[in-house]
Amino acid sequence: MNRMTIYIIAGLFFVLVISYSFLKSNSDVEQNKYFESTQSQSKERIKDLDLDKPSEDASYILDTKKLSFENIPVKDIEYKADPDTDWIINLTNSNGENFKKEDFSKIFDHYWRTNFPSTIYGFSPEDNKWTFANAGGTPEIYSKLQIAINLQEVFNKQDLKEASIRLQRYYSELEKRIKKYPTKITLVQNESIESAIQKGKALVSVYNEFNIDAIIVLQSDKQFDGLKTWDALQSIGLIWGDGDLFHWNNNTNFGHDQYFSVWTTTEPGYFLPEEIKDKNMNPQNLVFGFSIPRSADPKNVFEAMLRAVEYCQKRLGGKILDGEMNPFNIAKERNKINELIKRMDNKEIKAGSEKALRMF
Q1: Which of 33, 56, 106, 258 is 20–30 Å from 244 (CA)?
Q2: Where are the beta strands (DSSP E) in the chain?
Q3: Of 13-27, 221-235, 236-250, 336-350, where does mean pLDDT reach its minimum?
Q4: How confident is the model at residue 323 (pLDDT cuts 50, 70, 90)?
Q5: How many CB atoms lie within 10 A of CB 11?
């Protein structure tokens, strides 16, 4: 199941480093500047503006054959609660019957989803695996249910006492709600609230340690020509779309949905084709970046991203800088990625894995 996220950027001139996690934030104010569209609609939009045909083909720069990671077949993918990152409440049907989606959906209504954010997983006896129980297109019958509360989110910006009270509210609310179910349901916690809180504290610490982006900036002394910029990015093979940014999309089942993305700190921070066509958008820089822990293959994606930046520099000019707007040091940036991956491995967190995607 894809985890496509709409990236929305509040572009403030010369404010760096813009973290990749910030790109995922989605404020109501920014959201009003966008309309949602499918990829095919985006293609039609740029086709109508005659912005769909690059002047040359440099797509060899983004060669997925040079990437190396595990591509999991769809049939083998299983979605279930993770005891390393979630506080889990198991639901069992006392009479041994299966859970029906039409019945338990009434428990997890709009009020629950709004005030008690969690993920509902179910074990499908038909498919013989766990999956999202309250999502569209999933089975209607489950032999077991799990409520997973993300401990990192619960603990973040809260002290131990507040986090403890919040988890207790989850359990108390759930106790009331299961009474709506036609048969008796038993609740079983996978661990005590006290243990879960300590785990949440550790998760936030890990997040702060490893939540690092790989950033390369192509900076102009004045401004890049918007039309030439658009053409250069398309020539590499980048796709304009989500969040009005350019992306090297990841079409596999491992890692984040994009290998890397391109934005700018020139307002508004993204690329509207109509503004490009009318020559109203001429960015002063291009920011190439990706989240290292979420990346399917950080080392090789970084090398491809660097080649893309160098190509754009040949086409557009400008200076290559790091995320802090200092002269770019290739050895330093490579070492940063290598050291981060080593430390993640020591914590048994594989970049791009389901566990990493949950945590970062």
Answers
A1: 56
A2: 86-93, 99-100, 119-124, 129-132, 141-142, 144-150, 185-189, 213-219, 239-240, 246-249, 258-263, 285-291, 319-322
A3: 13-27
A4: very high
A5: 17
Q: What is the C-alpha R_g of the chain?
A: 23
Q: Is residue 33 predicted with pLDDT exceeding 60?
A: no
Give CA–CA dist 287/266, Å, rounded.
10
Question: Is the bond preceding 154 in cis, omega lying within 30 degrees of 0?
Answer: no
Instruction: Tell whether the model's pLDDT for residue 20 goes beyond 80.
Output: no
| Kind of pairing between the strands at 239-240 and 141-142 | unpaired
Give the C-alpha distances (Å, rounded to integers) separating 331 from 206, 217, 311, 322, 334: 25, 16, 19, 12, 5
Distances (CA, A) of 260 to 110, 236, 266: 34, 13, 19
Which strands make up the sheet holding 213-219, listed edge to edge?
239-240, 246-249, 258-263, 285-291, 213-219, 319-322
Task: Write the DSSP symbol of residue 328.
Answer: P
pLDDT digits (tens, 9 = 90+) for 150-192: 999 888 766 788 889 999 999 999 999 998 888 899 999 999 9
Mean pLDDT of all residues in 45-68: 93
* Helix (H), strand (E), coil (C) string for 98-119: CEEHHHHCCCCCHHHHHHCCCE
Query: In angstroms, rounded to a whole number, what is the distance separating the alpha carbons of residues 217 and 327?
Result: 10
- Please, are residues 117 and 148 in contact by the beta-carbon 8 Å criterion? no
How many H helices and E strands in the chain?
A: 13, 13
What's the CA angle centered on 42, arms 38 and 48, to 5 degrees? 140
Spatial separation of the C-alpha atoms in residues 178 and 106, rounded to whole Å = 10
Residues 81 and 88 sit within 8 Å (Cβ to Cβ): yes
